[in-house]
Write a sequence for this structure.
């Protein structure tokens, strides 16, 4: 559906919140373009949390729109982006970074004056400049990046609590409207996120170091293991434990990550040079047998690692794990999964570690939250199953 005229409704002033805390929604009409993990999770938080009265949604996949309606992530379907944003007070663009400018250009003529627009892309610098030029001054644009993720993707992986205790970065510039920034800060804080503001360029450099570079390294590690496996077929079979955890982000969407790498090219290249110097230094220490320097670097890494917040969600989601020892008996794994499922506990990862015929084996179970892992441990132990936290 194409709209050939400007929508009649006019969004309220950017600094004004529709409704009061605890007494009504913060926003009357919202629109989300892109109904994947992030867009769907935002929609669930908005509607189930009573933060928005109406959330219109659009996705290029019709199935995603239907699923979002069924899950309650949106309560109004739109057949095109233009229809979704008509009359919206706040618009969230939860589409891949490679399509943000295109989508912004499509919706710009149909935004009500004063509409607040934000995005969820993990690259900000050039994107912010492009979207400001496309959307302003008719609308108010504020760059955004929710620092939360999941092992799964798509609308069916959407989680109302995905942003709870997660950092949500907003990237204002001198051209950002103060009222629009304030409105988004309040909205995301009420969702449970920890909102911080950063310069767009600083954001890109920091995220390149903690997210984009690690993903590249995970890819390179998997490629190295693949090359090694050509002559040593047992390589991938033995690639469990630490290697599996280190490289799990390499399973991300290749198209999405391709766009991220290309849009954040300069920051990633800068960090790659830094990383290359570190690797060359380590290589020299190992070649020389330099015990003291090597140990000092390893100790420094341990100290820095201890400074990483343990209870804060990040782009690489934490995995809370149990190891369970089970007997070699038909149906034992199914019975265990059923017991946890009946208690509303979702197992998001499972791996058989060791099995001896006639004796049983060890299984690793992964959960999204520490609370789920603790509850699972309690249930399994109450059934006489040997389980422990990793």
């Amino acid at each position: 559906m194409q709209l050939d005229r400007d929508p009649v409704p006019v969004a309220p002033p950017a600094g004004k919140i529709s409704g009061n805390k605890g007494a009504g929604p913060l926003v009357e009409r919202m629109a989300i373009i892109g109904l994947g993990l992030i867009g769907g999770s935002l929609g669930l938080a908005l509607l189930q949390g009573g933060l928005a009265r109406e959330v219109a949604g659009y996705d290029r996949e019709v199935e995603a729109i239907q699923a979002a309606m069924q899950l309650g992530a949106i309560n109004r379907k739109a057949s095109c982006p233009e229809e979704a944003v008509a009359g919206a007070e706040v618009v969230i663009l939860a589409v891949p970074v490679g399509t943000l400018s295109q989508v912004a250009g499509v919706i710009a003529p149909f935004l009500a004056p004063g509409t607040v627009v934000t995005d969820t892309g993990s690259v900000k610098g050039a994107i912010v400049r492009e979207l400001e030029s496309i959307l302003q001054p008719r609308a108010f644009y504020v760059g955004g990046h929710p620092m939360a993720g999941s092992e799964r993707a798509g609308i069916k992986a959407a989680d109302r609590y995905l942003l709870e205790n997660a950092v949500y970065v907003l990237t204002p510039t001198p051209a950002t409207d103060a009222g629009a920034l304030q409105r988004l800060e309040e909205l995301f804080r009420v969702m449970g996120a920890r909102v911080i503001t950063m310069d767009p360029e600083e954001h890109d450099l920091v995220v390149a170091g903690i997210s984009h570079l690690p993903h590249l390294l995970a890819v390179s590690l998997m490629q190295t293991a693949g090359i090694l496996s050509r002559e040593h077929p047992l390589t991938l079979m033995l690639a469990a434990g630490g290697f599996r955890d280190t490289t799990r982000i390499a399973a991300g969407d290749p198209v999405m990550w391709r766009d991220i790498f290309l849009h954040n090219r300069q920051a990633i290249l800068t960090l790659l040079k830094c990383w290359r110097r570190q690797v060359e230094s380590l290589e020299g220490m190992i070649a020389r047998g330099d015990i003291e320097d090597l140990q000092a670097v390893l100790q420094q890494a341990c100290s820095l690692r201890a400074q990483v917040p343990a209870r804060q969600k990040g782009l690489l989601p934490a995995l809370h794990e149990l190891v369970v020892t089970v007997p070699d008996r038909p149906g034992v794994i199914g019975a265990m999964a059923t017991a946890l499922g009946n208690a509303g506990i979702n197992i998001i990862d499972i791996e058989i570690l060791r099995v001896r015929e006639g004796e049983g084996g060890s299984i690793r179970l992964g959960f999204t939250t520490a609370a789920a892992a603790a509850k699972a441990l309690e249930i399994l132990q109450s059934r006489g199953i040997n389980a422990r936290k990793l």
Remarks:
- The chain has three domains: 27-198, 203-306, 320-389.
- The longest strand covers residues 140-147.
- The domain at 27-198 is CATH 3.40.50.720 (Rossmann fold).
- DSSP finds 14 helices and twelve strands in the chain.
